[in-house]
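Q: Joint fold for the lines below.
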Amino acid sequence: MKLNITVLPGDGIGPEVISQAVKTLNAIALEFDHQFSYKYADVGAVAIDNTGSPLPDETLALCKSSDAVLMGAIGDPKYDQASVRPEQGLLKLRKDLGLFANVRPVQAFDELLDLSPLKKDIIKGVDISIFRELTGGIYFGEKKTTEDGRYSSDLCEYSNTEIERIAHLAFKTARLRGKKVTLIDKANVLETSRLWRKTVTELAKSYPDVTLDFLYVDNAAMQMILNPKQFDVILTENMFGDIISDEASVIGGSIGLLPSASVGEKHALFEPIHGSFPQAKGKGIANPIATILSVALMMEHFGLFDEAELIKDAVVKSLKLGIVTPDLGKAQDNITTEKVGDFIADFISHPTDSNHNFSNIHLGQSTII
Ligand code: IPM
Ligand code: MN
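A: Joint structure:
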């Protein structure tokens, strides 16, 4: 398969984790005889530095003309007080590409059960797919601040069609998994949440094989920690999804593991859920796995399921052997972002080789040849 991929490394640790994801893509291309080509562009703080805009027109045009977008991370504290912020670039990109569904899989890897502050028996076997609406709600409603700076408002809006299109995706996915959708809302208070409930209840009639249940977001936040195994597919609006997915990342042991796919009718973008982690920039300690697993989601998006499986196998192998960055392992092992990427690419190139050797990773060569 030929794929034209726009790569947006972004800020902070973004470029470091993106290099490992591209390495992974190259290994997959070689192994499965695909042609992946890359065009790089700026978004976020680096784009403000270079052009004054967090999403330059050329970047948007490039994304629109490509088959997929691979993104690192966005954000830089130096713009915290600025009127033009890096995050605005990401929000505009999501909106202009029509990426209305953000899919965030959350899994507890057996190898990492000890890392989570939650008890093992609570998280073992967790496998959740979060469907977060991404182009509506309070993120995109009218924003106001009066001139004297003493009053502000953010409007939360949804239309039934915005709800329906992501709900269909959530139900279709549930059909292939545990056949359960949990709608997270605040229907006891919010008018938009009542519209979500009504619309989703109606639509659920076309999926009689899928069970639908409802949770208020405050209760859902508690249930995510008390009994996360009750969840299969979670469907929710933009801001609730943002918050619940960060909370859910605790189950996996590190936010450095969670990938995401943002999809719309025409475009798709793949990015880790973590931020730009500016304190870690250039130190080689950033975990590349979330971005590498985002590449696996990209493969699935294009129907390349063997490729996705192989990437996931490589990740699991790296976890098993402890070839991991300090957020998952012992800091004194000194395994860098790059070494994790090298190991994963190497495993992809030699998947049947049983000699993947931990000691050689320090020599920059993880396989005994
Ligand atoms: C995310 C991030 C973004 C969001 C920020 C950077 C705007 O937290 O992708 O979850 O809130 O959507
Ligand atoms: Mn977030």
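Q: Anything notable?
A: The longest helix spans residues 14-32. The chain has two domains: 1-100+260-369, 117-252.
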